[in-house]
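Annex B, item 7. Sequence and structure tokens for protein A, then protein B.
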Amino acid sequence: GDGTSNVGLGILNSSKEFGKLDYKQVLREWTAAMPADWGFTPDNQVGEIRGAALPM
């Protein structure tokens, strides 16, 4: 492949935080905390952060 990755996160609907978080911001903060050599930086992002809820 070309090294492109799809990154996502989820939260269980049984969590007390369910529906209260800005999930896009959580994703930004989570990827910012990843090791720099992984390359998950805004400069390397090839698309907008989108949401698609999956029942969990």
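Protein B:
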Amino acid sequence: MAQPVLYLAPHPHNFQNAKVLIALEYGRSELGAVEIRGPAAGDTLSQLATSRLPALETDSRLCLQGARAVAHYLAPGRMRGSSTKDSASIQQWVNLADSEIVQPACTWAFPELGLMKHNSKAAERAQLDLKRILRLLDAHLRLRTYLVGEGVTLADIAVSCSLLLPYKHV
């Protein structure tokens, strides 16, 4: 394989793809060319469930699965943290996005996209959970431009992409 291959999830509203594509855009100068495609029969990664996508296969046969790992690999070093403290803070925000934003964001937005049956109680709970997270973000960003440090990091990408569905569809 001449260049890395990035396999994206097939659904057009997949926010996990967005995380990876943004990291790729920032890291492209360090990485060089990357082929982007969906999974297809015969590909090394074709047996992966779509829940494991996006995935990346490099020319050295490294195979990474999942948005967090792929985005981490594709992003330039400065976006992963310039110190141990910054790196840990970035991971804290990425974890918050994955553990506390994604589920309520999907619960609220998926019915609007026809991906899930509407459940009023679940939607109400999701809205409350997201409002709590947005208050936390608002308080943290009141005197800052970025979640960690003085530039865009994987923390900003993870949190903003996790909020894409409710911002775009509800």
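Comment on protein B: The chain is about 50% helix and 5% strand.
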